């Protein structure tokens, strides 16, 4: 089972700047000089082995879109942020001419989580089936609204795929494409919902756009139960704790620190920091990851917790 | 959870002990806030002596933030002092170092918020290193 990240940024898509790119090039060239790199054949191995993550990589800038791939015929996708555009191209490339079946599960309908749908290629394919699942009664309205004049040139009604909207209820288990799925209400303006997915003895939790109140014991216990023994929790870690409980309180997002605490409490195996702040560059996001790893080392319980920070194109095997 | 209190010059010293986590943060907050409110009412500074705190979680840090807001609303400052290495690292990891003025010791904190109180502190704590 593979979890594939197509969009990991919060709020608005961002791109690496020319300044950032130049810094990476300079860092790579300095490293090449220091390592005496001479042969073109040695370049790929040099990049993989000698360059650090911040030099050879970027966290990327697409807004949330995560594919959970159990190797089944039907796709399961969380959210339709701008990462839905490359995902749509990937699905069409793999389709081999067959119209795909895609199950979407929506955390909520804020723009950064739906903006990719007008560019999601399967929506334009006759015979394709797209089932949009979510707990908001405004789900269909939001999808239609962003594809109505004057916002977008192609009206929602002109999409060729068979698109169905399916209402879910928080706390009520539902079977979706072979997965057992349970939604949970989260603290976010206009509400958001996290989802616990179970299949073949594996559990993945998608919990983004969720603010936590660590002093609220009932809420903490509720999320610990929701995350309980999960193989992977994808967690909104947009802010530092200091920001989350001060100037950005009530902004509807959480921190790397609360992510580590809840994951430890719940016995989670792998915590993936997600919904990165658009104002953060690669170095800042990497710092958030290093801080989370250090906190886990300081507070480790029975077994170590694996922690990563999601990047566009990342794959996690569950 | 215990909270020792002392007064030097205009400054109130508050010294909690133990762990401040999800299970003790409510108690910590109820012990802390009356002192902070009393100091804020007279615009007096507050020094949190954390030398007796072994660990602090996000719930405890949020109590600090709420208390600092209450102090600030009364025109007083709240600073922290004497952090054990683990607690200091948690402050750094959570970026609370950007929010609170931090001092190595209560004496250093007093020198920062009410220098006139240092002499009285030294009289009461003759064995403490300067």
Describe the fold and architecture:
The complex is a heterodimer of chains A (318) and B (130). Chain A is of the alpha/beta class and 318 residues long. The longest helix of chain A is centred in the C-terminal third of the chain and has 18 residues, at 282-299. Chain A has ten helices and 14 strands. In chain A, the strands form two sheets. A seven-stranded mixed sheet of chain A has the order 6-5-4-3-2-1-14. Chain A has a seven-stranded mixed sheet with strand order 7-8-9-10-11-12-13, covered by helices on one side. Chain B has 130 residues and is of the alpha/beta class. Chain B has helices spanning 25-41, 58-73, 85-93, 106-113, 118-124, and strands spanning 2-8, 11-20, 46-49, 53-56, 78-81, 102-103. In chain B, strands 1, 2, 3, 4, 5 and 6 form a six-stranded mixed sheet that branches. In chain B, helix 3 (85-93) links the parallel strand 5 (78-81) and strand 6 (102-103). In chain B, helix 1 (25-41) runs parallel beside helix 2 (58-73). Chain B starts with a strand and ends in a 6-residue tail after the last helix. Chain A binds chain B through residues 213-215, 217, 220, 240-243, 245-246, 255, 257-258, 261, 291-292, 294-295, 298-299, and chain B through 22, 25-26, 29, 55, 57-59, 61-63, 65, 69, 86, 89-90, 93-96, 98-99.
User: How much beta of chain B, percentage-wise?
Assistant: 15-25%
Q: Calculate Rg of chain B over CA atoms.
A: 14 Å
Give Rg of chain A in angstroms.
20 Å
Question: Helical amount among residues of chain A, as a percent range?
Answer: 25-40%
- Which residues of chain B sit in consecutive blocks of at least 5 with pLDDT less than 50? none
Sheet bearing the most strands of chain A, described? Answer: 7 strands, mixed
State which percent range the strand residues of chain A make up: 15-25%
Q: For the report, how would you describe the main beta sheet of chain B?
A: 6 strands, mixed
Give the proportion of residues in helices of chain B: 40-55%
The neighbouring-strand order within the major sheet of chain A is 6-5-4-3-2-1-14
Q: Please provide the ordered H/E string of secondary-structure elements of chain B.
A: EEHEEHEHEHH
Count of beta strands of chain A? 14
């Amino acid at each position: 089972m593979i979890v594939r990240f197509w969009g990991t940024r919060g709020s608005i898509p961002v791109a690496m700047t020319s300044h950032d790119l130049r810094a990476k090039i300079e860092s790579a060239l300095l490293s090449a000089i220091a390592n005496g790199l001479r042969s073109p054949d040695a370049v790929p191995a040099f990049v993989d082995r000698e360059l650090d993550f911040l030099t050879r990589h970027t966290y990327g800038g697409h807004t949330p879109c995560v594919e959970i791939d159990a190797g089944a015929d039907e796709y399961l996708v969380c959210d339709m942020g701008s990462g839905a555009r490359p995902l749509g191209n990937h699905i069409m490339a793999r389709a081999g001419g067959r119209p795909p079946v895609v199950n979407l599960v929506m955390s909520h309908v804020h723009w950064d989580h739906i903006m990719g749908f007008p560019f999601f290629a399967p929506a334009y394919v006759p015979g394709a089936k797209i089932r949009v699942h979510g707990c908001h009664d405004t789900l269909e309205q939001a999808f239609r609204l962003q594809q109505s004049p004057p916002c977008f040139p192609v009206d929602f009604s002109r999409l060729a795929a068979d698109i169905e909207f399916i209402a879910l209820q928080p706390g009520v288990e539902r079977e979706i494409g072979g997965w057992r799925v349970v939604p949970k209400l989260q603290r976010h303006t206009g509400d958001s919902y996290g989802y616990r997915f179970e299949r073949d003895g594996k559990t993945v939790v998608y919990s983004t756009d969720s603010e936590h109140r660590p002093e609220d014991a009932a809420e903490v216990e509720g999320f610990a139960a929701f995350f309980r023994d999960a193989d992977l929790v994808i967690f909104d870690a947009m802010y530092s704790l200091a920001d989350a409980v001060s100037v950005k309180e009530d902004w509807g997002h959480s921190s790397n620190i609360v992510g580590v605490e809840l994951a430890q409490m719940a016995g989670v195996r792998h915590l993936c920091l997600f919904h990165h702040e658009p104002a953060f560059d690669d170095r800042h996001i990497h710092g958030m990851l290093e801080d989370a790893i250090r906190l886990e080392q300081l507070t480790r319980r029975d077994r170590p917790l694996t922690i990563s920070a999601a990047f566009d194109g990342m794959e996690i095997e569950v | 959870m215990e909270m020792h209190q002392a007064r030097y010059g205009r400054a109130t010293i508050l010294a909690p002990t133990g762990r401040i986590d999800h299970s003790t943060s409510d108690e910590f907050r109820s012990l802390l806030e009356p002192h902070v409110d009393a100091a804020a009412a007279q615009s007096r500074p507050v020094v949190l002596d954390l030398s007796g705190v072994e660990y602090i979680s996000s719930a405890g840090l949020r109590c600090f933030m709420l208390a600092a807001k209450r102090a600030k609303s009364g025109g007083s400052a709240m600073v922290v002092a004497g952090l054990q290495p683990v607690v200091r690292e948690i402050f750094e990891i959570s970026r609370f170092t950007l929010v609170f003025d931090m001092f190595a010791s209560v004496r250093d904190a007093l020198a920062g918020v009410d220098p006139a109180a240092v002499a009285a502190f030294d009289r009461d704590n003759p064995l403490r290193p300067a």
